Amino acid sequence: xxxxxxxxxxxxEKAVDLAQQLDGQVDIIEFGTSLxxxxxxxxxxxxxxxxxxxxxxxDLKTIDEGDYEFDKGFAVGDxxxxxxxxxxxxxxxxxxxxQARGKQMFIDMMEITAAKTAQIVDHPAxxxxxxxxxxxxxxxxxxxxxxxxxxxxxxxxHISVAGGIDLAMAQxxxxxxxxxxxxxxxAIVKTADPVAAAQKFMxxxx
Length: 206
Fold this sequence. Notes:
Elements: E1 2-7, H1 12-22, E2 28-31, H2 33-47, E3 55-62, H3 66-73, E4 79-83, H4 88-101, E5 104-108, H5 114-119, E6 127-131, H6 142-152, E7 159-162, H7 167-176, E8 181-184, H8 186-189, H9 194-205
Parallel strand pairs: 1-2, 1-8, 2-3, 3-4, 4-5, 5-6, 6-7, 7-8
């Protein structure tokens, strides 16, 4: 299982520093939506040195203008996100562009219905991200949700999960063996020693 660390709601200077500390420690480094909205792709591209080990995911949350946003995004990152709520045509278009570039597409499945999900599970190389909304007040059991999704949509090959993941849940997901990657934010980046925290998560999932 891969570890993706989400960096968001900090200054760009802090984000770059964290990314450089975590490069080589984790598999995927994510620059979150708020960070991208605050600073923009051009500033991020100018300020962030190319990562040497980890892949860079940019959480664009594209919902329209897919080709334009993915073309700009792939000039900076390796993995880009598109909302599952986007039109099937948008999803197909950005998937084709992603495949042509030899990159990766992450479909954010937040708050979409089973009926809509059934319409969009035909992109075999895409990562399907089970994402508990930050603003949601409902309880979230990541392992149970991943298991139910896998039962309902067994054809999906690449699953990622986010939403308040702690060490115990990360280990449970790794043992479960369904999700390919787990996304952790505050439990790593808001600690006194993010590198040490990341190492603990890496130990938990391997």
